[in-house]
UniProtKB/TrEMBL annotation:
<dbReference type="Pfam" id="PF03208">
    <property type="entry name" value="PRA1"/>
</dbReference>
<feature type="transmembrane region" description="Helical">
    <location>
        <begin position="78"/>
        <end position="108"/>
    </location>
</feature>
<feature type="transmembrane region" description="Helical">
    <location>
        <begin position="140"/>
        <end position="161"/>
    </location>
</feature>
<comment type="similarity">
    <text>Belongs to the PRA1 family.</text>
</comment>
<dbReference type="GO" id="GO:0005794">
    <property type="term" value="C:Golgi apparatus"/>
</dbReference>
<keyword id="KW-0472">Membrane</keyword>
<dbReference type="GO" id="GO:0042802">
    <property type="term" value="F:identical protein binding"/>
</dbReference>
<dbReference type="GO" id="GO:0008021">
    <property type="term" value="C:synaptic vesicle"/>
</dbReference>
<dbReference type="InterPro" id="IPR004895">
    <property type="entry name" value="Prenylated_rab_accept_PRA1"/>
</dbReference>
<feature type="region of interest" description="Disordered">
    <location>
        <begin position="1"/>
        <end position="22"/>
    </location>
</feature>
<keyword id="KW-0812">Transmembrane</keyword>
<feature type="compositionally biased region" description="Pro residues">
    <location>
        <begin position="1"/>
        <end position="11"/>
    </location>
</feature>
<protein>
    <recommendedName>
        <fullName>PRA1 family protein</fullName>
    </recommendedName>
</protein>
<keyword id="KW-1133">Transmembrane helix</keyword>
<dbReference type="GO" id="GO:0016020">
    <property type="term" value="C:membrane"/>
</dbReference>
């Protein structure tokens, strides 16, 4: 009798992949959970931009309280604004966009390989493969001025988001609305 060959095995998680069967190229489950938590924490933009809620802090202690509590409260909004600044930065520098395309193209191509990548007789781990992708695209990043773009992005985010967190007044505690004074 002829033996029946076992079916080819798919990468772990590919058989029940709800994201379209991308297998090893799809983001892990923790990334989807993290994105869901950020989406759930998004505050209404009307509340975020309410001009009546802005004012100068009275002292340094209030400034630090505002920075901490507003950063926690509007974390998802700040993340979206940071991503918008990042998108602007990328679209205003086409060569940087090309460098990122080369990096991700090489990284995806290396990750999608069936056989492990062997370089100089040694098998490369996924982290080393990302290093190879970075090494291939590093000259393009240097030519595109990625360092200047990165510092512009960090500076712009610090100014815009930091000033919002510093000047937006704190929300009154929910328990303060429910307290009743004795008559």
């Amino acid at each position: 009798m002829a033996e029946v060959a076992p079916p080819p095995q798919e990468p772990p998680g590919a058989e029940s992949d709800p994201r379209g069967g991308l297998g090893r190229l799809s983001p892990p489950g923790w990334a989807w959970r993290w994105l869901g938590a950020r989406r759930a924490g998004l505050r209404p933009w009307g509340s975020f931009l309410d001009q009546r809620r802005f004012g100068v802090p009275r002292d340094l202690g209030e400034l630090w309280r505002r920075l901490g509590q507003n950063a926690e409260r509007f974390q998802s909004n700040y993340l979206l604004l940071f991503l918008a600044l990042l998108l602007y930065c990328l679209l205003s520098s086409p060569l940087l966009l090309v460098a990122l395309g080369v990096f991700f193209g090489v990284a995806v191509r290396l990750r999608a390989r069936e056989a492990p990548l062997v370089l100089l007789g040694r098998e490369l781990s996924p982290a080393h493969q990302l290093g190879v992708a970075a090494g291939v695209s590093l000259p393009l990043f240097w030519l595109a001025g990625a360092g200047a773009a990165l510092f512009w992005l960090l500076g712009a985010a610090l100014v815009f988001l930091g000033s919002h967190a510093a000047f937006r007044e704190l929300e009154p505690p929910e328990s303060a609305e429910l307290q009743m004074e004795p008559v």
